[in-house]
Write a structure and sequence with these properties.
The complex is a heterodimer of chains A (about 200) and B (about 240). Chain A is mostly beta strands and about 200 residues long. In chain A, about 5% of the residues lie in helices and about 30% in strands. Chain A has three helices and eleven strands; from the N terminus they run βββαββββαββββα. Chain A has helices at about 60-65, 125, 180, and strands at about 25, 45-50, 55-60, 70-80, 85-95, 110-115, 120, 130-135, 140, 150, 165-170. Chain A starts with about 25 loop residues before the first strand and ends in a 16-residue tail after the last helix. In chain A, about 35% of the residues are buried. In chain B, strands 4-3-6-1-2-5 form a six-stranded antiparallel sheet. Classes of the chains: A mainly beta (about 200), B alpha/beta (about 240).
């Protein structure tokens, strides 16, 4: 620090402990994607999980619902472009339920999207803290926000919450996904400001 | 390293339109690619900070970094950058960031650019980069803007178009210039069909603007037969 901007006061507010460093409060819901919004039909949607040994499991819409969705309330999300949205509500299936009874040595997972997007995540860290989400604020998830189904990993920057989720590939070793190859951090913890390389 | 903040001195600035300002910054950063952005951070005298991302308009590798900032009246950072920051003063910057929404002079395929409002900024960096490199691959720009007075870089763009260096198409959404042959209105599929490079030309397409513009542009383009993988987008919300 040490460089001040004379006359800059900012939008003065109480200091908030719920905003990670460098983030500001956003009441809208901005959209960030690298290409056109793919239109994925919920009736034809499938999620495929592949283990490091090539074992595969596949769910369709009903198969996902059968795993037991839950309400994810009062959840804060943080985008690397510096906006944070607090107290959001989602409905989704905990990621753990897709892994039930699975034998795996994997320490990472690559989430993949219908448009070819990928993002890598640390598996153990996100278990219990990640959902396969299909509702936002009580309504079906809109296409531009990743509908019909996206990953929701609120404790990491939001590019890790892959939109239009269609695949989960378990990996023994870490590997960079799309933004991770294009300048963004492998881990992406907003509280440690892990934004870029 | 893109991850650390460095001081940047405002060495020059001018109004681009009544509500926007181009800032020329001197900072020790890695050279930029065309289409990348900088993070800008302001610090109040009590230590409070606010940061936002701004696309670079300067060409790739330029010694000085140029951004054009649109003032959002409810914004926190943009009003200061447009009306407050004085030449000679410093701010902090980080970057350049982003390796996807970039154009490199080694690309030889035709390029279709689509800009909504201030989404022109990173596309201007691509146009300028190609110009400096003497690029000859076709480059077409469709620039959608509210009114004639809201255009950025008007003289430079018109000059490039007059010299046949780019194919320039304006779409005015609220107000058209006198004698303009079309009525004001947002882009439509029919308009895009008429004004953009067809899939047969094999263009790479860059779309930058507000979310609504990007959605309105990319849907018809894919219907025309452009591959999604050839359409790169950058969206921005009202986050000033």
């Amino acid at each position: 620090m040490g460089i001040f901007s004379p006359g800059f006061t900012g939008r003065r507010r109480e200091p908030r402990s719920d905003l990670p460093p460098g983030q500001y409060l956003e009441n809208g819901f901005p959209v960030l994607s690298f290409g056109p919004t793919p239109h994925v039909d919920a009736d034809r949607w499938q999620l495929t999980l592949t283990t490091e040994t090539g074992e595969r499991r596949t769910w369709d819409w009903q198969g996902m619902l059968d795993l037991g969705p839950e309400l994810v309330e009062n959840t804060d999300i943080h985008c690397v472009t510096a906006w944070s949205k607090l107290g959001t509500t989602w409905r989704g299936v905990p990621l753990d339920r897709f892994l039930d009874g699975l034998q795996t040595e994997a320490r990472f997972v690559m989430a993949g999207s219908a448009d070819g997007y990928t993002t890598n995540l640390p598996l153990q860290e996100i278990l219990g803290r990640a959902w396969v989400a299909y509702e936002f604020d009580g309504a079906p998830l809109a296409p531009e926000h990743g509908g019909p189904v996206r990953l929701l990993v609120p404790h990491l920057y939001f590019w890790k919450s892959a939109k239009w989720l269609t695949s989960l590939r378990l990996m023994v070793d870490d590997a960079p996904g799309f933004w991770e190859q294009n300048g963004y951090n492998m881990h992406g913890d907003p509280w440690r400001e892990e934004r870029y390389w | 390293m893109s991850s650390s903040w460095v001081p940047a001195t405002l060495v020059d600035a001018w109004r681009e339109t009544p509500g926007s300002r181009t800032l020329v910054l001197d900072a020790r950063l890695e050279p930029a690619l065309a289409g990348q952005h900088l993070d800008i951070r302001l610090t109040a005298d009590d230590g409070y900070t606010a940061q936002r991302s701004y696309s670079l308009g300067s060409p790739a590798g330029a010694e000085r970094f140029q951004v054009t900032v649109d003032r959002l009246d409810q914004g926190e950072v943009s009003p200061y950058l447009v009306d407050g920051l004085q030449v000679g003063h410093q701010i902090e910057v980080r970057g350049p960031v982003g390796r996807w929404f970039v154009w490199e002079p080694t690309q030889t395929e035709p390029i279709q650019l689509l800009a909504g409002g201030s989404g022109i900024v990173p596309l201007m960096s691509m146009i300028r980069t190609r110009e400096l490199a003497g690029g000859t691959a076709p480059m077409r720009l469709l620039y959608s803007v509210r009114a004639p007075g809201d255009r950025f870089y008007t003289d430079e763009l018109d000059d490039l178009a007059a010299r046949g260096r780019i194919d320039l198409q304006y779409v005015f959404t609220r107000e058209v210039p006198e004698g303009w042959p079309a009525r004001a209105g947002r882009i439509t599929g029919a308009l895009l069909h008429e004004l953009t490079l067809p899939p047969e030309d094999g263009p790479t397409i860059y779309v930058c603007g507000p979310t609504g513009f990007v959605e309105a542009a990319t849907k018809p383009l894919m219907q025309f037969g452009h591959e999604a993988s050839r359409i790169k987008t950058e969206r921005f919300g009202p986050t000033g």
